[in-house]
Amino acid sequence: MPEVKRYPNRLGIKGWLVGGKWGPERYLYFLHRVTGLGLLLYLLMHIVVVSSRAFGQEQWEWAMGRVSGPVFLVGEFLVFVAFVFHALNGVRLVLVELGILTGKAEDPVFPYRSSVNVQRPFMIVMMILAAILIVLGGYDFFVLVAH
Amino acid sequence: MSMKDTKLWTWHMASGVIILVLLGIHMLAMHMSGVMPLERLNPAGDNPLDWANVVARGREVSQVAGYIFLVGFGLFHGLYGLKNILFELNPAPGLKKLISVVLLLLGLGLFVFGAWSAVAARTMALSVSG
After folding, report:
1. A91 — contact with chain B (CB < 8 Å)?
2. What is this model's ipTM?
3. What residues in A contact B114, CB-CB < 8 Å?
4. Of B20, B88, B124, the CB nearest to A56
5. What is the distance between the alpha carbons of residues B39 and B29, in angstroms, rounded to a whole number?
6. What is the pLDDT of residues A46-56, one digit of tens each?
7. Are A63 and B126 in contact (CB under 8 A)?
8. Apex CA B89: angle with CA B83 and CA B92, to 5°?
9. What is the span of the domain harbouring residue B51?
10. Is the pTM here over 0.80, yes or no?
11. Quick check: A37 contacting B, CB < 8 Å?
């Protein structure tokens, strides 16, 4: 198999956001990575914190006491927001990766149709759905739980 | 992209879908119990963090199995994603190898610890119920 020529990644992490003039999908790509890294960091800590349940009630309540209060509540809500966004944008990415919602291949006849425009309505639907779930989650976090 | 990379990428996507289901249920139980109360997930009252709910969930095989699967697929999905991000920065071949080994060991170590804690919590929950 021929070796694929790899080009140097000059922009590095900076290129996630300032790689050029991009459509909204480029910013979703940036947010997908940032939320993914945040969720990974949370998962690593979460596994350690919730393992306290294996040591009994006292240890569990002590551990939960360490991670309670307004700062942790806001932090947990941000994790919830990151999950909702990452999950729904991830569904869009999987469908696009599999060639679903990108439209049929067609001859390059002017005016050209971009597959990005074909899948964009789905992106908008997923982001609206994410916004609804985030609002519902926020209501649960800050209104129902607080009272 | 080698065949191994293609397989890992396919698993990355598949694990994402599995996490969506498992973590979706987890989020419903933990963070949306007020808007959408599901008695099966929090049988001992509204607060999912109450010890009684922790014990009740620990008694359910499906909850314990779901947690172990979630930890496994979550670690794979997250650490493979991190590896791809780091590899995009074109590290030297030796550093690539080191990154792969460190992430693999981190993932395996946390998976074993997470799975052990879930099983130990179940054993403890069953002993509490008598």
Report:
1. yes
2. 0.89
3. 47, 51
4. B124
5. 9
6. 999 999 999 99
7. no
8. 90
9. 3-129
10. yes
11. yes
